[in-house]
Amino acid sequence: MTTFTTGTDTLTRDALAVLQPGFDGTTAPDWVRRRLGEGLASVALFGRNVAGAEQVAALTAQLRAERDDLLVAIDEESGDVTRLEVRTGSSFPGAHALGAVDDTGLTRDVARELGRRLAACGVNFNWAPSADVNANPANPVIGVRSFGGDTALVSRHTAAYVEGLQSTGVAACAKHFPGHGDTNVDSHHALPHIDLDATTLHERELEPFRAAIAAGTRAVMSAHIRVPVLDPDRPATLSRRILTGLLREELGYRGLIVTDGMEMQAISGTYGLEHGVVLALAAGADAICVGGGLCDEGTVQRLQDALVTAVRTGELSEERLADAAARVRELAAWTASVRDAPDGDGAPQPEIGLTAARRAVAVTRTAPAAPVTGPVFVATFSPAPNIAVGDETPWGVGAELERLLPGTASGTFTGPDAGTRALKAAGGRRVVAVVRDEHRHPWMGTALDTLLHADPDTVVIEMGVPQSAPRGALHIATHGAARVCGVAAAEAVVAG
């Protein structure tokens, strides 16, 4: 039986403190401001909250007028997953591009510049980087969000990213523990099952997290995945064996543990949202990410009530809830203490993102080809985006090639007859074919077959993981679909 040593007000405040909710709109809703006064210590920003850098700065200032040490979190991996530049595409390449360059100094500089921009907007907690080793090329949710498929490479770049970001006073968050790279299921839709042996898990999946911990990461995000070798019954987010036994006790991690989005079907569709939140706290999580989909005050009230009830019934100890709330407040205190400190070492590098994207481009010439000197037709073969990436962010090379080669036209195609339709739309013009993870989408391969059969001079640009063999007279791999990757690819087309 639980013995209460604190009043209901403290219990309620602790329940609010562990939540990291989202909200609707580009200004601070009244209910969020009121909840900050009642104990809420964190909020999360999503693309729907962003109209521009100045607006985000004004929004965070509104929120901090209610609570000065507020944690403002965001999922700003850059590359394919961007929230600050959700409607334009990111000014920074993502992890896979940085891993392709394999210059840890560059990764550190990119993360530092990103941190400066986040801090200038009042954001002090970034759910990045991905420390996942992309061991399964068919992975539908990680892919270019990972630094790569080599453990040592992912480890050194994870550490460099953490160091660069946190040098600006923005807390980093290594994710998705204990490693989401070897899965062919997207945990936004279902519960992935990763059947690894203990040796592979420790030598491959866990090494980047060890590197992140050694680099001082202030947060680690749990994955909604089942790893039977660690816990045959519960996914990592809800597993005491994984969050407390492995992460805390075996790896010696002392910072904040935050869950991945709790509305994701891997949790809410299996355990239910309220019960899942209670189980996550009991397992060792400190902060609950919610708000990617459910972003209303009613959700916050439901979760607060579920936690308070769980303490009163003994399902969750009061001590565990208090410990979790204390870790949230400790991270908030750290960000507040460094907020007014000098922003990182070294001068700002506003062009570092484009520099990195250019360095990440890999050009393969499979046959002699005529240079591209005039207008072309850009055929973009677009797959359905995963939820992490979203469908709001533009990608490709069409706009950049239209700028560099006036008269260029573009079209987007999908499905089994995409190549035939693209060829017809091109009307005899030379085609630049843009794909994203060709190896995961057989219809893309068929489309390229059609175009290359009609014109071997077709240029192919791969903006996902370049797993398929290069083909096309000119093949350009960008290792990601950030806006700057599109700029770099267009430059490579014109340069030949």
Please supply descriptive tags for the structure shown above.
globular; alpha/beta; 496 residues; six-stranded mixed sheet
Please provide a written account of the structure.
With 496 residues, this protein is an alpha/beta fold. Helices cover 41% and strands 11% of the residues. The chain is built from 18 helices and 14 strands. The strands form four sheets. Strands 9-14-13-12-10-11 form a six-stranded mixed β-sheet, sandwiched between helices. Strands 2-3-4 form a three-stranded parallel β-sheet. It is globular, with a radius of gyration of 23 Å. The model is unreliable at 1-7 (pLDDT under 50).
Task: Name the overall outline.
Answer: globular
Enumerate how many helices there are, as a single number: 18
Quick one: biggest sheet?
6 strands, mixed
**Helix proportion:** 40-55%
Which stretches of 5+ consecutive residues score pLDDT under 50? 1-7
Strand composition percent: 5-15%
Query: What's the N-to-C terminus distance?
Result: 73 Å
Query: Based on helices, strands and strand pairing, what is the structural class?
Result: alpha/beta
| Total strand segments | 14
Spatial arrangement of strands, main beta sheet? 9-14-13-12-10-11
Query: Looking at the chains present, what oligomeric state does this protein adopt?
Result: single chain
Whole-angstrom Rg: 23 Å
